[in-house]
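Sharing in case it's useful to others searching the archive later.

Someone asked me privately for the predicted structure of Transcriptional regulator, Crp/Fnr family, so I'm posting the question and my answer publicly. Question first, with the sequence:
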Amino acid sequence: MNRGTPSHSLEELSEAEWRHHCPSFSVVTLGDKAVIHRQGDIADVAFIIARGRVKLSRLNRDGDQFTMAVLTEGQMFGAPLADQSSTTLTDTAEAKGRTVLYRVLVKELRELLRSQPLLAWDTIETLSKGQRLLERKLELMMFHDVRSRLAETLRDLAGTQGGHCRHGFELDIKLTQQELADLVGAARPVVSTILNEFKSRGILDYHRTLICIQNLRALE
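And my answer, the predicted structure tokens:
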């Protein structure tokens, strides 16, 4: 990015610009399944995904772990921007594949956003998009059956996280069936049955950690 051109999003900031505005800034490179923070940790830092993906999961009272979301490049997690001090984190964050994160103290990030309205506006838009996705997920849970929720979730994931499929399909989504079942809000055997139905119709195929989409239109 040219020095004279203002950045419109956090991921557009160069490392030099980050360090100028946020002395605590650091780049964190992680391998697959590396834990970034755990549910219950006390933290005052935020993370922005520069490359890769991050899974957020949560334990229930019985100790069962559920996938809450899979975040991708440009999205933020960690301590909330609204908190003025350290906060207790409600999720465990884990890298999915090789992942590069920007780590920064929340208080410094807030000051950066106060000083640069365009950055603040883009950040608000990003957070609002995440809120809309959560509202849509709640709507699906309340008013749609599992098959409809699964098809909608696969379409959403294909739009945000789909990549070139090395098996010759249209695209693939790096997700296990259990993670997909958690996102849909259904038992894994039920989701597996519907995936088998989709597979028999030539809509998709799946491997251990990949769901390969053959015909995205058929999910509409």
